[in-house]
Each structure stands twice: as C-alpha cells, then as structure tokens.
Amino acid sequence: MPPRGKGSSPGVGPGSPGSPDLDKAKNFKASLRRLLTELKPFRLAIIATIILAALSSALVIISPKLLGQMTNQVVADWLAVSQNLPGATFHYHILATLAFQILVLFIASFLCEIISGLIINKVTIRLVQNLRNDLATKINHLPVSYFDKRPYGDILSIVTNDLETIATTLQQSLQQIVASITTVVGIAIMMIIISPSLALVALLTIPVGTIVVILIAKSTQKHFRAQASELGDLNGYIEETYTGQLLIRAFTREATAITDFEQKNHRLKKSSHLAQFLSGLMMPAMQLISNFGYVATVLFGSYKALHGQVSIGDIQAFIQYVYQLGRPLSTAAQVTTVLQSTVAASERVFGFLDAPEESLDPKSPSLIKKVRGEVNFNNVNFSYTPDKPTIQDFSVKVKPGQIVAIVGPTGAGKTTLVNLLMRFYDPTSGTITIDDVDTCTMARSDVRKLFGMVLQDSWLFSGTIKENLLFGRPTATTRELARVVDSAHVDHIIESLPEGYNTKISEDSDHLASGERQLLTIARAMLADAPMLILDEATSSVDTRTEQLIQDALRTLTHGRTTFVIAHRLSTIKNADLILVVEHGNIIEQGTHAALLKQNGAYARLYNAQFAEE
How many other β-carbons are positioned within 10 Å of the β-carbon of residue 197? Predict the structure, then answer.
C-alpha cells in the first residue's frame, strides 16, 4: 500500500523497538570505523582541524615553562639584590619579554582554536547534510513492507535525534580529543625534560585512569543503545497519540494513554539513568585519580626542591603541568561518554541505511506503448510471512475498460491484490500481466504510472490546494486544472476558501470536511489522467449529498478506464462489470451483481446483511 496515513499504529516486526536489526548493537569498533569512513571526503579539512587543534594545545603547554623561567629570574634577581652582589638588579626587560611571549602564545592558541572550530563546524554541517540526503534516498528505495512493519516514531528518531547526536559529537568532541591527546603528550615531554623522576610519579595516573575509563565505558555502551531504542519507541507513541487524539477522547482512553506513556517514559528514564549514571562516574573518578597524582607530585617535588635537585621555577611549572594533566584526562572521560551515545546513534543510522532495498528493476524493462487496460492474474500466490499464505492460486482476467469490484470480509486479501497490482509487493509465484506484459519485467515506476488511486483515507499533503491537485501531474495547464475542478465538483469548495487555490492546508486538513477532502483526492486522480484506476471505497463516512457528488465524480473518472474497486458498501458497486468475492485469498464467487444475487451464495449473504442494516 502507499505510505500509511496519520494515526497509523506502530507495527511489530524487524526494526521496531525490541527487534534485532535496529536495536541490536553492532561491534563498537566497526560502527566507529564506519563513521570515520563517512568522513573520508573531508579528510583534508579534518587534518587541518587536527593540526590547528594540536597547535593550539601545544602553544598553551609552553606557557608554564616560560612562567617557570620568569619565577627563576625573579628569584635569582632577588637573591642577588638581597646579597648586594656587584651589578645585581631586577631584569625587568627579561620579565617583560617572557610575559610578551606568553601573551603571543595565548593569542596564537586562541586563533588556532577558533579556525579549527570553524572548519569542523563546516565539515559537520556537510556530513549531516550528506547523511540526511542518504536517508531520504534510502526511504525512497526501501520496500513498502519495511514501513508496514515499523513505527514512524522510530524512523523519525533516526533521521532527527540520532543525526543530531552525531553532529553534536563531531562539533564538540573532535577538537577535545585532539587537544587532550596533544596536551597529554606535550605535558609528558615537558615533565620529562624538567625531571624524569617527578614525571614518573605524575604520569602513573594515566594508565590507572585509562583502565577506569575502559571499564566504565564497557558497562555504559549497552545502556546508551537501550536509551536510543526507548527514545524511538516513545517518539512513535507520541506521534500515534497526537494524531489519534479524537479517537482517544471518543473512547475515553485518556487515562490508558497516559498510563502507557508513563510506562514507556519510565523505561526511557531507567535506561537513561543507568547510562548517564555510569558515564557520569568517569569524570569524578578521573579527577580523584588526578588529585592523588597532584598531591604525590607536590610532596615529592617539595622534597627535591629542598635538596636543590630542581629549581623553584621548575617546581612551579611542574605543578601547573600536573594541574593541566587532570583536565585532558577528565575531558577524555567525558568524550568517552559522548562517544557511547554517538556510536549507538550511528549504529541505528547505518542499520537503516543498510536495510535491504527493493529488488532492482530489469536492466531493459518492458514498456507498454499504448495501454488498453487488459489485466490478468495468472495463478498468483503470495504471503507476507512464509507460514501464512495470503493469496493462493488466484486467477482472473479483466477486459479493457471493465469496472472490477473486489469484495469480501476483512483479511480476505482485497488490499493485498492492490499491493500486488501496484508492485508494492511482488507475487511469490505466478504472474500479473497488463496488456500481456508481465509487470515484474517492467520498472516499478512505469507500472505505477498506469494507475490513478483514490484511497479511503483522503490523504492531502501540507501545502496549497493547487499543489495538492497538481501532485500527480505537475505539468497540467490552468485550463486542464479548471476543467477537472469543475468535473469533480470541487469548484465550490475552492471558491469558499479564503485564498482559493493558494489556500494553505495541512496534512490533517482540519478545516475541510472528510467529503471535501475526498473530492479533492478524486480531482487529483482525474488530473493525473492515468489509463487505469484503483479505488478504495471512496464514499465511506460521508453524508448522502456528498456521496452523490463523489459518485458523480467517480463516474466521470472511471469512464473508459479499467478500474479496480475495493468495495465495503456493496450498494455502490451494483453497476460493476465484474464482482470478485474473495475469501482467504481465493475467489469463491464472481459475476455481476444480479447474477451473484441469483446464486444466493456468499455475496448474497453479504449484500442482504448490509441491506438489512441499512
């Protein structure tokens, strides 16, 4: 079937929350590697970002060493002056030079950080744009069965929340990762230059902190995946309850809806709490480890300074380095937390992009140059699941221009026949031919262009009345549009709207009555001017006067066209050329209205039951 209308219920199947192919984690490294692969086209910009971010951190790392030299200079000058040594004086020019060098370092570091930020922001915007384009393209290549089995909210969460998570991580974390690595390496080098023994004491915190981060990260990964899954489930439920508000209130199900929401929200809270709590342990743990290293360094450094093994300026620089060392380690813990949610998000995005697509159209597809409208179902079998056949050995021949009504109880396979006819699904076995051409040898788009559709759900898109009417044939002229509007009896509807054809409507079209929306969809099908038609009971749930207008419009629409009608109200198909009574995927009766009534079989029972109700 075409995309489901508003208020569709979430389906149960692969990819819905709780099913393996969207929730189940792939290998962390593999997902991260896939994300890095997506960044390959931007490698030069990323290299520039890394160089600038590393340079920014490196410039800052030099400053404590220069401050230590200033301290040593001040101490040396003060001792010389206090001891009245010959030529003793305060060398202010040396201090000023060092201070100026530090200022230049800070400014250069700032500029490098700003430029690298601008570059990575541009890369992130382009990457997310490309991924959105890929997702949009993917949506148009996925089989209809994919959307029949999955809740909209979960797919919406992938396209919005998960992409936003990836974008935020790239914008904020890449610079932090590079800066942290550069800072740790640079500080380690400077520490070793100042005092190898002091460096050994200070740097012991790095492996200990790394082990702590790895242990916590492994525990948090599954909870971030669960959080992403529960968020998709909650979004799907919100979309469903929002669009189904009238139904919920009509059946006084508000309390149940609130309870269901609270349960889903509680599951999301629980998974989020575990993910955030465990990941939140990283930074405090790293700070605690860093503080131990800081205290040990101060004690050992003081001892060495008292014994003249290092200068006061070097101790000052060293303490600053130890203090700076805590920040990249804490940042690494924070970035690790963000990476957990990012990898979970990327798994869902790539899982969607890797979903099986529709089979490819034939390389040399068949074409029907002049459509007559002869349709044959030849021993067609089909099932949505292998263990439950839906259509079994179905055969029927439809002559050009015939109106064929398909009737039967719910679940008989009426809609499935339309799905097969439009190639939303392909038969498991057997063939469907149009003018003796097997539809499976044609391109799907060519098959679908042969049919106009008017569905029971009168689906209108957000936009103007004119845009909705032109949806099936954007090249129609103003004269053709006016003729169709008149034939479909929607001229009075358009004239009553504040801006006529340019009136904006939403997909809900709340200011239009259901019959008015249905007339607009009939006008849209008329304007498309397809050689064949599929009608899904177009007169349900409308008043008698509107039904007469719709029936009149449908008579104009179906004239001379092969038409398939899924009929629920049997009184509307009395004039059909052929009525197929379908039950359990098989034709159990076929003929005209009068002939079937004479048989006094299944059709007669259905018709008499409806007649008695009316």
Answer: 13
pLDDT of residue 329: 66
8 Å CB contact between 161 and 24? no
Nearest residue to 225 via CA among 336, 369, 334, 342: 342
Amino acid symbol at 340: Q
How many other C-beta atoms lie within 10 A of the C-beta of residue 189?
A: 13
Query: Tell me, what amino acid is at 339?
Result: L
H or E segment to which residue 543 belongs:
none
pLDDT at position 107, please? 93
- Are 329 and 177 a contacting pair, CB within 8 Å? no
Task: Give 453's strand partners.
Answer: 534
At 240, which helix (H) or strand (E)? helix 205-243
CA distance 237 to 265: 10
| pLDDT tops 50 at residue 439 | yes
How far apart (Å, rounded) are the C-alpha atoms in residues 286 and 328?
A: 10
Q: Are 73 and 95 in contact (CB under 8 A)?
A: yes
Average pLDDT over residues 404-418: 82
In angstroms, how far is the first alpha carbon of the chain from the final one? 30
Residue 409's Cβ-side half-sphere holds a number of Cα atoms within 13 Å equal to: 8
CA 611 – CA 614 distance, rounded (Å) = 5
Task: Quote the strand ranges of 1-92, DSSP E.
Answer: none
C-beta separation of 466 from 502 below 8 A:
yes
Please give the biggest Cα pair distance in the chain.
132
| Residues, the chain | 614
Dihedral in degrees, nearest 10, Cα atoms 392, 398, 403, 408: -10
Tokens coding 7: 């208020």
- What confidence tens digit (pLDDT) does each residue in 440-472 have? 999 988 998 898 888 777 777 888 888 888 888
**Phi and psi dihedrals of 424, rounded to 5?**
-70, -30
